[in-house]
Amino acid sequence: METLGDRFWSIIDASVDPDMDAQIDTLGNALADMSRDEILAFGRDFERAMLAAYRWNLSGAALVINGGFSDERFSEFRSWLIAQGKAVYDAALQDPESLAGHIKEAYGAAFEDFADVVIDVYEAKFDEDYPLSESVLPAAPAGVAWDPNALGDLYPKLTAKVAELEG
Questions:
Q1: What is d(CA 79, CA 116) in angstroms, rounded to the nearest whole number?
Q2: What average pLDDT does the chain have?
Q3: How many CB atoms within 10 Å of residue 46?
Q4: Got the DSSP string for 93-133?
Q5: What pTM value is reported for the model?
């Protein structure tokens, strides 16, 4: 199965923009110039990045940042995380507290539409349905589950940042 590897992240990094609509346009334009195989490889790399971020420690961070939790909201958070670029993504995988410097608004770390760009471009360009993914999420995120009563202690920087933004 072909992947784009480093090129995936260079495409994501080149699209980073505080304006989500502009970021979608930039990513869509980059994908529109790709071949079918390249678009599919990009989609597989996106799925791999989503899966790699399927971790308990990131789900706890998502709950603190976004003020609620569901599978859908966690997926939207992971899409947002990828949209921040490789450096932010890699740092968050190592330490979710690193996101405190990247949160611009309380409850705003979700980017559902970003995950749909590859599908939308593929379907518009080739006039056919995007091939269904065969990847399946594990039964639970990787790592150690958190205690909902301890989130403030687990994520003090994120908790303080959200409180400041709410302020």
A1: 9
A2: 93
A3: 21
A4: HH-GGGGGGT--STT----HHHHHHHHHHHHHHHSSPPPPP
A5: 0.94
